[in-house]
Write a structure and sequence with these properties.
It is a single chain. With 327 residues, the chain is α+β, with helices and mostly antiparallel strands. The chain has three domains: 86 residues, no CATH class; 171 residues, no CATH class; 31 residues, no CATH class. The strands form four sheets. Strands 2-7-4-5-6-3 form a six-stranded antiparallel beta sheet, with no helix packed on it. The chain is elongated and about 80 Å long.
């Protein structure tokens, strides 16, 4: 792998310009700082454009078990007072938890109720008002919103799995489906659903909340593209290069071509031929990045990645019986 400064000097050499002493050092001149900024931009655009195997990561976590607390509720009020404890909401944040009556009924707490805030050591506020009053009511809480990796750029599609139950998670579900399940009569199905809701990292929300005994701990997993597309001198992954010795993970020749085109463009020169060379090189490098699955026409070896297989042709044959016949 090649350092940022070496890549920039390869680009200026092809452009017939003098070597650069530094890109990100304190003594960098305007041209050197510009080249450093443009190289960062080229890398970020490459990371956004393609799913490079070198920027793929996996996230796994266990669903946390539910817990029961007592508190006083008043019909029409969102506040729960005289709670036995509220310390459980400190680490993950109060808004990461759903709540219901411990017996599973809606005698005091409406369906799809969640914790809004932790007000004190003995008080919380819910996002919905209680529907009946009660003293020392047993309330069951469970975490339903989890932290995404802070370096995540975007999901890799169709990688969401519940490894404990060996089935795919359903999602991302739409806001319409989510509200239908939370607010309607039919609240759930045989598999867990998810969506990303809100801004920040604590936004990965599942439905239904795992109140039922035996649903936790469950190991969930998915893959994503990381924002960290370079490493510093110590090997630590970084999202932006700030030192001449930082190393981007993308192919050197692609970055050289991209940097040349970007520099020529901001200077007002004829950059389009250079950009065409860069795009071609980037596409070729991306197509050769990592191994690619061979797409089989038939399912003769029990594979599930064929165009025609037992998953998408119900009768196991194509064309099926009656194909091409009279309607």
């Amino acid at each position: 792998m090649t350092t940022a400064l070496a890549i920039a000097n390869a680009a200026v050499a092809e452009l017939g310009l003098p070597d650069l002493a530094t890109l990100y050092g304190a003594t960098a001149n305007a041209t050197e700082r510009q080249m450093g900024a443009l190289l960062n931009r080229v890398c970020k655009e490459l990371n956004a454009e393609y799913e490079w195997t070198r920027t793929m990561r996996e996230q796994t976590f266990y669903l946390e078990e539910p817990f029961t607390l007592t508190g006083d509720v008043v019909a029409g009020s969102r506040v729960v007072t005289n709670m036995s404890s509220t310390s459980e909401f400190i680490t993950a944040g109060a808004s990461a938890f759903s709540v219901q009556n411990a017996d599973g009924t809606t005698d005091n707490i409406n369906q799809a109720t969640r914790v809004d805030t932790r007000d004190s050591t003995t008080q919380i506020t819910l996002n919905q008002a209680a529907i009946a009053s009660g003293t020392a009511v047993e309330l069951e809480f469970v975490r339903d919103t989890y932290e995404l990796n802070s370096a995540m750029s975007r999901y890799i599609s169709d990688t969401w799995w519940d490894r404990s139950n060996h089935w795919r998670l359903i999602g991302p579900i739409s806001p319409q489906t989510d509200e239908f399940l939370r607010s309607g009569i039919v609240q759930t199905g045989p598999r867990r659903r998810w969506r990303q809701l809100g801004n920040g990292t604590s936004t990965w929300q599942i439905w239904p909340p795992p109140f039922t005994s035996g649903q936790t701990p469950a190991l969930l997993a998915f893959e994503f593209i990381t924002l960290a597309w370079a490493t510093d001198l110590s090997g630590t992954a970084i999202e932006t290069m700030t030192a001449d010795t930082d190393v981007p993970v993308f192919p050197e020749h692609v970055l050289v071509l991209g940097l040349k085109a970007a520099f020529w463009r901001v200077k007002g020169f004829d950059w389009q031929p250079m950009y065409a060379d860069y795009v071609e090189a980037a596409r070729r490098a991306a197509s050769q990045d990592g191994s690619k699955a061979t797409l089989q026409i038939g399912d003769t070896r029990g594979r599930i990645d064929g165009l025609l297989n037992t998953f998408n042709v119900p009768d196991g044959n194509f064309p099926g019986p009656g194909f091409g016949g009279t309607p």
